């Protein structure tokens, strides 16, 4: 599926308006973990998480994983669409990215985060947002490609736009953390979005091949970057 097939792009202002409206129900701090999928909430979880149901059943909300994370990217969920997710860990790439140090897994006393889970080396996948990405919009920004720690996971196409190799990407979040779209385009109130986001591989947005429009991302991922649901 081409980027065009993702659906007609919302204006940046329209995307933010949609995000603000959704934030009444579910807010997010920083990089965000909330994804809508078939009416259910899916969150970007730390390494070692298996299925959402398994994590919710095993997690005792002790927040030892939160305390163990040296980069403060593991955060407990606060107000969410489902009260039973409150206090469970989700990832926010506002202040750092994951280097898979596994401190969170080591700290977990219940097996909610386990070394046997596939997510120990694969948190999610990065998705380029074509109508928010600077390189897709008007300038040759290569920050995400330059910063990516996985060789070949992010490259440039023939038009110098970032392309994600979804087989190589491990969802570490460094691209999302370093993306300068919000700051470089801050003169336009409707561009306060990152040009790349990490999403769980199980969400609808992850199934879209190539770059995605903000409309497709909002539809398949939910709110991208609002405040509230993750405790700072």
From TrEMBL:
PROSITE patterns noted in UniProt: 4FE4S_FER_1 (PS00198), 4FE4S_FER_2 (PS51379), TAT (PS51318)
This protein's UniProt keywords: 4Fe-4S, Iron, Iron-sulfur, Metal-binding
Span of domain 4Fe-4S ferredoxin-type: 48-79, 89-118, 124-159, 160-190
Single Gene Ontology MF annotation: metal ion binding
Cofactor(s) required, per the database record: [4Fe-4S] cluster
Alphabetized SUPFAM superfamilies for the sequence: 4Fe-4S ferredoxins
InterPro entries the record matches: 4Fe4S_Fe-S-bd, 4Fe4S_Fe_S_CS, PSI_iron-sulfur_center, TAT_signal
Pfam families in UniProt: Fer4_4, Fer4_6, Fer4_9
Protein name (database record): 4Fe-4S dicluster domain-containing protein
Species this protein is from: Slackia piriformis
């Amino acid at each position: 599926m081409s980027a065009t097939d993702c659906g007609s792009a919302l204006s940046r202002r329209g995307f933010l308006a949609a995000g603000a409206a959704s934030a009444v129900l579910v807010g997010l701090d920083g990089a965000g973990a909330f994804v809508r999928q078939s009416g259910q909430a899916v969150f970007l979880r730390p390494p070692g998480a298996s299925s959402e149901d398994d994590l919710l059943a095993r997690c005792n909300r002790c927040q030892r994983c939160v305390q163990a994370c040296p980069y403060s990217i593991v955060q407990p969920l606060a107000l969410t669409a489902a009260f039973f997710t409150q206090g469970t860990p989700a990832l926010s790439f506002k202040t750092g990215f994951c280097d898979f140090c596994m401190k969170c897994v080591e700290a977990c006393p219940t097996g909610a985060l386990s070394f046997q889970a596939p997510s120990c080396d694969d948190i999610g996948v990065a998705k380029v947002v074509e109508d928010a990405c600077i390189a897709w919009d008007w300038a040759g920004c290569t920050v995400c490609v330059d910063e990516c720690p996985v060789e070949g996971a992010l490259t440039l196409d023939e038009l110098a736009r970032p392309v994600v190799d979804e087989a190589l990407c491990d969802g570490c979040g460094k691209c999302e953390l370093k993306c300068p779209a919000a700051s470089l385009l801050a003169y336009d109130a409707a561009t306060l979005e990152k040009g790349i986001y990490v999403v769980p591989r199980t969400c609808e947005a992850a199934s879209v091949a190539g770059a995605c429009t903000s409309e497709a991302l909002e539809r398949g991922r939910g709110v991208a970057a609002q405040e509230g649901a993750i405790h700072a």
